[in-house]
Amino acid sequence: PGQLEEMHALPQMYGLEETGVYISGFNNFVDLMVFPAAMSFYRFPFCRTALDRLFMWGVNKYFRPPEHNVVNLEADGELEGKPAHAQLRLEHANAYDLTAIPVMACLLQYLEGSLNSPGLQLMALAVEPARFFKDMERMGVKISMEQNT
Questions:
Q1: Contacts with 20 (C-beta within 8 Å, 6 or more apart), sequence order
Q2: What is the C-alpha separation between 98 and 90, in angstroms, rounded?
Q3: Cβ 38 vs Cβ 55: under 8 Å
Q4: What is the pLDDT at residue 1?
Q5: C-beta separation of 18 from 1 below 8 A
Q6: What pLDDT does residue 128 have?
Q7: Exposure class string for 94-123: b at 16+ Cβ within 10 A, else e
Q8: Cα separations (Å) of 54 from 22, 30, 60?
Q9: What is the pLDDT of residue 126?
Q10: What is the pTM of this model?
Q11: In Å, how far from its chain's centre is CA 59?
């Protein structure tokens, strides 16, 4: 399980019953050893540095190219009173690019003036989604979406 601040507002905004963020796929050592340890001990400040270092060591020690990075959203609910399932998938070969490209897509909207609400905002809740995904795709992120009813 992971934490994204943007997720906290979604149940109230959309009437959701459950949300979650799950991270995996680094390698067996990180997935099976470091993440469980982090879930148990990261709340203790004196453990954080050691866990951060263990994570970085495990990622670098057991890295096996080629790298492939995916952000996958799956949603189950109702659409027009019928059960529905939707999946949004973002893919890129480089994890650093996949992290930076959404920031750049947000900055494009900010620099053109379409993000003009004052104060601190969460990026995922501030951007115009269609433009955001179009810009990310233009910058090399492969985006696919499925919806089944």
A1: 1, 7
A2: 8
A3: yes
A4: 62
A5: no
A6: 95
A7: eeeebeebbeebbebbeeeeebeeeeeeeb
A8: 19, 9, 10
A9: 93
A10: 0.72
A11: 18
